[in-house]
Amino acid sequence: MDRITKETRSANMRAIRSKDTGPEMKVRRLVHGMGYRYRLHRKDLPGNPDMVFPVRRAVIFVHGCFWHQHPDPACKIAHQPKSNADYWKPKLERNQRRDAQHKAALIAQGWRVLVIWECQIKDKDALQQRLKDFLG
Fold first, then answer.
1. Global pTM value
2. Could you give the 3-state DSSP secondary structure of residue 116?
3. DSSP assignment string, 19-79
4. Which of 50, 88, 111, 119 fits 81 for a cystine, CB–CB 3.0-4.6 Å?
5. What structural domains and CATH numbers belong to the chain?
């Protein structure tokens, strides 16, 4: 049973954005501050990557741990909802399958792919080193 009304839940879900999210903006500011320049959400690439580095043939996806179901067991954000499981389980599994298909398609086209999970953004030093290793 959901703790809030259907109308409130609907309004909450409408407010969730697919791009320019908080985690994505943090990564973008960090990457820009490191001196790298990029393009945003190229529609001609599978999955519309959050950041595209054309010269480096590299893309970055910033995934929300819940929406993309971060597989790390230590991640506290990626949980299965207890209410309305018949709706959420297939939806979240579709997201995971789609993510895997987009990543495979990008790799097949010669792109390097980095996925940054929402919970990994908290450790700025580790994230900065990971970005430097990937984009270096």
1. 0.86
2. strand
3. SS-HHHHHHHHHHHHTT---EE--TTSTT--SEEEGGGTEEEEEE-TTTTT---TT-SS--
4. 88
5. 19-135 (3.40.960.10)
